[in-house]
Design brief:
It is a single chain. This protein has helices spanning about 1-5, 10-20, 25-35, 35-45, 50-100, 110-115, 145-150, 155-165, 170-175, 180-204. It is an all-alpha fold. The longest helix has about 50 residues, at about 50-100. The chain is elongated. This is RNA polymerase sigma factor (Sigma-70 family). One of its GO terms (biological process) is DNA-templated transcription initiation. Keywords: DNA-binding, Sigma factor, Transcription, Transcription regulation.
Length: about 200
């Protein structure tokens, strides 16, 4: 469907696709063309080629590729942070269960719990150390990324959490927030652009 749509744009596009039949098989390029803005830039460069339109296409694709790399980094970072959170929470719950078990003689309570909580500072277990996953300040060991995440709007933070932390699709997030899937997609994209912009400024 994408190929037919492109071929209808102009004769130059049809010739280009005939000469480069595998270009649309690349997932990154497919994603590039799904963005209406990038789609128009590509069509303009092929149908009305000039130094400027070709340069615009090069810059647009570099921006898209950088965004793909960034989202992969963000997904990996927040996904593994979420996994570590769940692992720590399960371990903590298991320790709590063991500590709360009654003694074999039938006495209630467990004095070891108090002793365990009052042990040396470097061994002390803080039963509240695991933050809720909605607390973005606990999501990454990358301080710069954490600061950038905290500067997002409330809606942007929620969508980032649900997408990368909880693995929800846009349609699921839309139902959860009672908004359209298009609104989720737009907010997600704007959040990524803001994060990239803030991280690039921090890196300068």
């Amino acid at each position: 469907m994408m190929i037919e749509q492109l071929k209808d744009e102009c004769s130059c596009m049809q010739a280009f696709l005939d000469d480069h039949p595998q270009i649309l098989e690349h997932r990154i390029f497919q994603g590039f063309l799904k963005d209406p803005h990038y789609y128009r830039i590509f069509v303009h460069a092929i149908c009305s080629p000039s130094l400027q339109t070709i340069e615009d296409l090069n810059e647009a694709f570099k921006s898209h590729y950088a965004n793909v790399q960034f989202t992969q980094y963000l997904s990996k970072t927040l996904h593994w942070t979420s996994i570590n959170y769940d692992r720590k929470r399960r371990n903590l719950d298991q320790k709590q269960i063991l500590l709360d078990k009654p003694w074999e003689d039938g006495t209630t309570g467990n004095p070891l719990l108090d002793e365990f909580s009052l042990s040396r500072n470097d061994e002390k277990v803080n039963l509240e150390f695991v933050a809720e996953t909605n607390d973005l300040s606990s999501w990454s060991s990358d301080i710069t990324l954490t600061k950038a995440l905290l500067r997002l709007t409330s809606r942007q933070r929620t969508i980032i959490i649900e997408h990368y932390g909880n693995g929800r699709k846009n349609s699921e997030i839309a139902r959860l927030l009672n908004i359209s899937q298009q609104a989720v997609s737009r907010t997600h994209l704007h959040a990524l652009k803001r994060l990239r912009s803030m991280l690039e400024k921090e890196g300068d």
